[in-house]
Structure formats: C-alpha cells, structure tokens
Amino acid sequence: LGHILLLESLFNVDNKPSWMDAPAPSSGGGDVESARGPVATISDADRPPYFLAVKMAFFFTNIGMMVFLAATAALGIGSATSINDTGVIFVGLYVIIFAGLVTFYELAQVLRWERFDEFMKKNFGFLYGIYGKSFFILMTGILCFGLDKPKTLPMVCGIIVSAWGPAQMLIYMKFPEYFEVKTKYEP
Do residues 3 and 158 touch, judged by C-beta distance below 8 A? Predict the structure, then answer.
C-alpha cells in the first residue's frame, strides 16, 4: 500500500479533469444511483423466485461459452502451419480478445469490481443492454466460422455460441423480470 501511495504522489494521479470526479452509476443490483438521482429501486423481496439461481445460470453459461470460444480459437491458431494461415491467426486472436471481453464483463457484474465496471461502461457500454450483449455474442460465434482447422470443432462452436446469443435475447423477451436493468455510462 505504501508503494502505491508513493507512486500516486510521484505521478500526481489525482490531477483529473473535473468531469471525471462525478461517480459512475453502479451496475449492480439493488438501489441504482446515477448522477441524476435514483434510477430504480429493487429489493430482494420484489425479485421473482429463483432470481439468483437464474442469474448464476446465465453467468456460468456465458463464461462456459466464452471459454469454449477461446479454446477453439487457440486450437485454430495452433493448427496454422504456413504463411497462408495468417487470416486464421488473426481471426483466432479476435475471437480470444472478444471472449475475454465478455468474460471480464461477466466477472465485473458478479464480483462487483467498481473501477473495472466503470471502465467497461465507458468503453464497452453496449454490453450493458441485453440486445447489445446478445448481438455481440452472436457476432463472436460467427467469427468462429473463420477458423478452418480443425474442421468440425469451429463449426460446432460457432453454431452453439451463435445460437446462444439470440436465445438469451428471446429468454429476456419472455421473462424480463429475471434480468437486471443496468445503467449505462453517463458522462
């Protein structure tokens, strides 16, 4: 802790523009605050039955899908054997980066990393709505089709992950009470 304080004093970390002093709204459950006041108040009694179980099921399913994507991309990159496979390497790197992005978003929601959550809101705000996140998962699953080695694994992974994005959106449309409304970044 002493080293961090020393570094902050040396590099004058607190010298920020005034617009950065306003606190970012929380994206967690419960009372949600923004710079303009309370957005929504949801108590545990107002939530539907099995809310936490459904939330955790979606969390683990999303993390599982992203691990599946990253592993498939890593195998695709590892199977590149010539200079002609440069496109496969770049597609694989994009898939790994995008899978990591969704993974860190999900972890920030469950573990309540406030600073990281603020960073994600500023730079990747589309993930805070179910439609943006679903289309992003769909797009990342489609990217998996660009990995041509091994033949069947990218095809299966692409189909499963591409189907999960719209399925998540359809579940939201049928049961919106099981999804938290997250506030996006407000500068």
Answer: no
Q: Is 103 exposed, middle or buried (0-12, 13-18, 19+ CB in 10 A)?
A: middle
Residue 109 in this model has a pLDDT that exceeds 70: yes
| pTM score of the predicted model | 0.71
Both structure tokens of 129:
């709505």
Give the DSSP H or E segment for 37. Answer: strand 37-40
Distance CA 106, CA 127 (A): 10
Locate 80 and state its tokens: 């590149």
Tell me how far CA of residue 169 lies from CA of 4, 80, 151, 174, in angstroms.
Answer: 43, 35, 29, 9
- Counting beta carbons within 10 angstroms of the beta carbon of residue 86, is it exposed (0 to 12), middle (13 to 18) or buried (19 or more)? exposed
**How many CB atoms within 10 Å of residue 164?**
19
pLDDT at 98 over 90: yes
CA distance 135 to 162: 9
CB-based contacts of 45-51 (< 8 A; 24+ apart in sequence): 47/177, 48/177, 48/178, 51/177, 51/178
DSSP at 46: G
Is 6's pLDDT higher than 50? Answer: no
3-state secondary structure 114-178: HHHHHHHHHHCHHHHCHHHHHHHHHHHHHHHHHCCCCCHHHHHHHHHHHHHHHHHHHHHHHCHHH
